[in-house]
Amino acid sequence: MVSKRPPDTALLAARAGRYREYAPPPALRRHFSRLWSNTLHDGPPAAVAIVPDGYCDLLWMDGRLDVAGPDRTAAFPAIRPGSTIIGARFAPGAAASWLRTPLSALVGLSVPLAEIGRRDTSEFEARLRDCPDPETAAALFGRLLEEAACDEDEPARDAALIFAAADSGRPASSLPDRLGMSERQLRRRCHHHFGYGAKTLERIRRFQRFLDLCRRSDTMSLARIALEAGFADQAHMTREVGALSTLTPALILDQLGMREEVSG
């Protein structure tokens, strides 16, 4: 179950467990940008914040394959302490084709893959349930995706260009001219491949630049991070970060930054 109601405090998913991500094998790189796993810490359950990143993920958790659709704001799923989630992050433009579903239909949702109608879902789930441990399941998960990828079309190239443009920090208003599309065509393609429009995607990718700067920061001030990430100023960053994550920039910097490691 996924809740959109923010708890009093929450841990970003990367801090709530042992999170690892790695590049997919060559056969999957057209369709997936990252493979990853996250084993949550044991102990009292903590509120876990899944923040928007502009992607859609395929997940193996609790004996079932789920699709985590793109988010506009943070989600707070109920996840058992000690459980392991194995995931594959779709490359821009790949998810809608792979799932035979426009991502606008999956915004803010976590949906069993079986409900979307892929024929191979039951077989994949049965084989993954037979794995004795998460490491074996992660290896098999990757192999099953490679098998499925053989029958998939190339991801939409225009979606990759739209994503790269949003990731560059350039204004979304310049996208139609740069991509040779009308505003209406761009809006339709964005909703199909990302679930929302270009301006929302741009906001989310700027927020992700903020998170990346926090991960690499040991001495950078919040005001400097705001400018480096592409916000107008620190107040703008505080509003945007709060709207997208429900957390403050200072709290996120405390969770992700290098200050503790450096001071120790």
Keywords:
Arc Repressor Mutant, subunit A, 264 residues, alpha+beta, globular, 2 domains, 6-stranded antiparallel beta sheet, 16% strand, disordered C terminus, single chain
Description of the molecule:
Keywords: DNA-binding, Transcription, Transcription regulation. This is AraC-type DNA-binding protein. GO terms for molecular function: DNA-binding transcription factor activity; sequence-specific DNA binding. The protein is of the alpha+beta class and 264 residues long. The protein has 2 domains: 2-149, no CATH class; 157-263, Arc Repressor Mutant, subunit A, CATH 1.10.10. It is built from 12 helices and 10 strands. The protein has a 6-stranded antiparallel sheet. Strands 1-8 form a two-stranded antiparallel sheet. Helix 5 (157-167) packs across helix 8 (198-216), helix 8 (198-216) crosses helix 9 (222-229) and helix 8 (198-216) packs across helix 11. The radius of gyration is 19 Å and the shape is globular. It starts with a strand and ends with a helix. 35% of the residues are buried. Residues 260-264 have low confidence and may be disordered.
